[in-house]
From TrEMBL:
Lineage, broadest ranks: Bacteria, Candidatus Buchananiibacteriota
Protein name (database record): CYTH domain-containing protein
PROSITE patterns attached to this UniProt entry: CYTH
Membrane-crossing residue ranges in chain numbering: 304-327
Gene3D superfamilies the UniProt entry points to: Hypothetical Protein Pfu-838710-001 (2.40.320.10)
SUPFAM superfamilies the record matches: CYTH-like phosphatases (SSF55154)
Length: 337
């Protein structure tokens, strides 16, 4: 009997570890690198002076009092997380991805609510593709793991983006970028977007299925800073990619009801499907009309700004010294006469 109990305990432990490992893999997406995921993401622009009001509404009717969710569907429940994201967007010198409203980014994610979360401090490289279907809110996404090379021996390993990607997936990333008509080696960092996110996770039948993110994004180039806020209601990309049509239809019905209520209760929310990369670049370009020229000559980074300022200071100093010695020489000659 003791042997039987011991055996059952071992089996239980092993199976528990197995399911935990499977859950962790699902959560990190580690089994889906270089595989397309479909996302359906609406974007509702928030006026700057209404951000706190919008969050107060979400907190009251989605977190504190969930009768609103239960009225839509009794299988719904919710919780929320605070998260920070740093996204460095890469593009070609002629900004081909920007023109397509697509993007390639290196992302670092920090979970401020739960530091033990498996996704906390996770790094990823992501390709975001626009116009993958007639549905304007659908986008495609490819993910690649980050693992820096121990020793830098090649041009790829020293590249600011390719050098980040795990070498086991680097060629797949290069192939995917090449299939988009882009030269992977030409990709360079264009701008950084810092995003503070308050995210409501909505569970359907106790499974995370829908999220509503309130994002406050900001970016800075050459001393000019821009910011904006938006709500992103979306169905989980895992479910949207893998679920049957009946489940997808039910979740789309739920999220459409939620968006309808948000727009009715907060009428200043306006749909703007422009991706964050484009929103950030467009706003920065309003403040820096020569931004595209900076990108063309790879001068948009803060280090480039310091270099340009340093060269300008040296040039001015050289000019001043040149004038000083010229005047001194002229004065000396005048005295000789």
């Amino acid at each position: 009997m003791k042997k039987l109990l011991f055996l059952l305990a071992v089996v239980s432990l092993l199976s528990g570890n197995f399911f935990m490992a499977q859950a962790a893999q699902l959560d990190t997406g580690s089994g889906d690198f270089n595989a397309i995921r479909i996302e359906e993401e609406d974007r509702l622009f928030i006026p700057a002076d209404k951000v706190n009001e919008v969050w107060a509404y979400l907190e009251e009717y989605f977190i504190k009092d969930q009768t609103f969710l239960e009225a839509i569907n009794p299988k719904l429940s919710a919780y929320f997380n605070l998260e920070d994201f740093r996204d460095i967007y890469f593009d070609t010198p002629d900004l081909k991805l920007l023109s397509q409203k697509s993007g390639i980014r290196y992302r670092v994610r920090t979970n401020l609510t739960n530091p033990e979360d498996v996704k906390n401090n996770r790094e990823l490289v992501q390709i975001k593709l626009n116009n993958i279907s007639a549905n304007e809110i659908q986008r495609g996404e490819y993910k690649y793991p980050v693992k820096r090379a121990g020793n830098i021996n090649t041009a790829e390993e020293s590249h600011p983006l390719l050098g980040l990607i795990d070498k086991d997936f680097r060629q797949e990333f290069k192939d995917k970028v090449s299939s988009l008509g882009l030269d992977p080696m030409s990709l360079r960092p264009i701008l950084t977007v810092d995003d503070h996110r308050r995210r409501v996770y909505i569970l359907y039948d106790k499974k995370p299925s829908i999220s509503i993110s309130l994002d406050e994004a900001k970016s800075r180039v050459w001393g000019q800073e821009i910011s904006f806020a938006e709500i992103e209601p979306e169905i989980s990309e895992i479910i949207l990619t893998e679920a049957d049509e009946k489940t997808k239809a039910e979740l789309r019905n739920i999220i459409n009801k939620i968006i309808g209520v948000l727009k009715a209760k907060l009428p200043y929310l306006k749909t703007d499907l422009t991706p964050k990369y484009n929103k950030s670049f467009d706003r920065l370009e309003e403040k820096l009309p020569y931004l595209r020229a900076l990108v063309k000559y790879d001068l948009q980074s803060q280090n480039a700004l310091y270099s340009v300022v340093s060269l300008a200071v040296l040039a001015i100093l050289a000019l001043v010294l040149g004038l000083y010695f010229l005047i001194k020489r002229l004065v000396f000659k005048q005295r000789e006469k």
